[in-house]
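In response to the reviewer comment on reproducibility (Comment 2.3), we provide here a single inverse folding case reported in full, input and output, so that an independent group could reproduce the run without further information from us. The structure tokens appear first.
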């Protein structure tokens, strides 16, 4: 009984800031989607055309943070302050490398991306401009994602939450002034730049830049890392350990996101209205993922702590408690999504055809919300303990074998529309969840505890380096 109470206290302490952060991020996505949606279906489709590539970029920018979080959490669980300090230092080097590399790649492909994805000629110019602008501050985006991983590894969930609040506030305010032309609200004249889709991109770029600077300052000032005393030094062994965890996650996310890119290109060929409905429905659904992703952050930290301690019983208990909590919370979220689907779509789209189609697919996906909640929590558990390689195989099998091939069959074989494609998306998530749950129950990850314990304390580091 005491163990259970302590577990729930730890989960609550770590989860609530992450849940709040996810909720705030979702609010700004809603504001973005509603403001761009007010410009019409073409504007929504232009932003949505490259959205999956944007998710891929964000995922790759954040995978270094997964490795850093895992190593920091394991070092914290093992009480190895030297390893904790070294892992924190590597976060900065990983931020600079991934940010610079992704910036170069994204700016290089930006002029061609809309055409590669099969976008309609009417939306290609806006889609290209949007992707180019949001790609410029990728070093700052990498700082937000990677350095927040280090902070979460030492159980500092509040700093990412507060910085997320600032970023979201800046984004919404700039959207208000940059997207629309000058107008009157009541009797009050309001300035507007009238930049449309480009204005939304500039607002996002500025907010990411501010967030990256703030995250770096808080990261350097965190006393757990002791940077003022030790400075920053590359450490090949610790960097390799972070990368050994992060690279399979990068491969997994890359496989999934490339599958999603092809998935979206298939939808783009259905026409502007299905693409706009798909884009807006994806954004609307994000609010109902908040409990799962909040618990995922807690799962990664607690699983890493348990792995560092070498405590299999604690790791199992934490994984099952968090999975059950996610399933229950997401069940309630799914019920709300089912009943609120038409109203949600009307928040973001004035076009009734887009509303009807988007509401239909949201109701399809609502039934799978509990499964998706378990999926993201189990991903957090495997990331925290550093067992990141098997999920890559699962992602390949389900993302490409179910979502992509299944969708192509629905569109080209049976000549069905967007609803059938979303059924394939639900099946993809369900199959991947079952595979992860099977591995967790089997206990094949036990070797990770032995490895983490050996790496955590066997090789003390010279902090003055």
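Designed residues, in position order:
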């Amino acid at each position: 009984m005491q163990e259970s109470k302590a577990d729930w206290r730890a989960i609550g302490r770590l989860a609530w800031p992450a849940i709040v952060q996810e909720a705030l991020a979702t609010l700004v996505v809603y504001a973005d989607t509603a403001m761009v949606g007010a410009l019409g279906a073409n504007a929504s489709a232009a932003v949505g055309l490259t959205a999956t590539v944007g998710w891929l970029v964000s995922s790759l920018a954040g995978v270094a943070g997964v490795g850093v979080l895992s190593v920091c959490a394991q070092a914290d669980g093992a009480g190895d302050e030297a390893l904790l300090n070294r892992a924190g230092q590597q976060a900065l080097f990983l931020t600079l490398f991934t940010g610079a590399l992704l910036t170069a790649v994204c700016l290089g492909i930006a002029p061609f991306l809309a055409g590669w994805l099969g976008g309609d000629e009417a939306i290609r110019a806006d889609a290209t401009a949007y992707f180019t602008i949001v790609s410029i501050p990728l070093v700052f985006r990498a700082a937000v994602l990677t350095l927040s991983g280090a902070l979460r590894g030492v159980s500092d969930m509040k700093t990412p939450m507060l910085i997320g609040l600032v970023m979201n506030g800046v984004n919404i305010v700039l959207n208000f002034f940059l997207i629309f032309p000058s107008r009157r609200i009541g009797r009050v004249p309001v300035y507007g730049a009238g930049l449309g889709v480009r204005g939304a991109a500039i607002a996002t770029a500025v907010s990411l830049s501010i967030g990256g600077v703030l995250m770096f300052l808080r990261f350097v000032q965190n006393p757990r890392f002791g940077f003022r005393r030790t400075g920053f030094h590359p450490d090949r062994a610790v960097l390799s350990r972070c990368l050994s965890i992060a690279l399979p996650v990068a491969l997994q996310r890359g496989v999934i996101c490339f599958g999603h890119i092809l998935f979206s290109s298939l939808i783009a060929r259905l026409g502007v209205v299905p693409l706009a409905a798909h884009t807006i429905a994806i954004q609307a659904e994000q609010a109902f993922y908040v409990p799962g992703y909040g618990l995922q952050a807690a799962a990664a930290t607690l699983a890493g702590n348990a792995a560092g301690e070498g405590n299999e019983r604690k790791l199992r208990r934490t994984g099952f408690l968090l999975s059950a909590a996610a399933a229950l919370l997401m069940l309630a979220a799914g019920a709300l999504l089912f009943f609120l689907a038409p109203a949600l779509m009307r928040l973001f789209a004035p076009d009734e055809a887009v509303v009807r189609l988007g509401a239909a697919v949201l109701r399809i996906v609502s039934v799978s919300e509990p499964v998706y909640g378990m999926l993201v929590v189990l991903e957090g558990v495997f990331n925290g303990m550093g067992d990141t390689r098997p999920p890559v195989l699962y992602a390949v099998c389900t993302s490409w074998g179910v979502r992509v091939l299944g969708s192509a069959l629905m569109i080209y074989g049976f000549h069905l529309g967007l609803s059938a494609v979303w059924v394939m998306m639900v099946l993809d998530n369900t199959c991947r969840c079952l595979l992860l749950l099977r591995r967790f129950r089997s206990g094949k990850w036990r070797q990770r505890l032995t490895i983490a314990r050996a790496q955590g304390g066997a090789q003390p580091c010279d902090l003055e380096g």
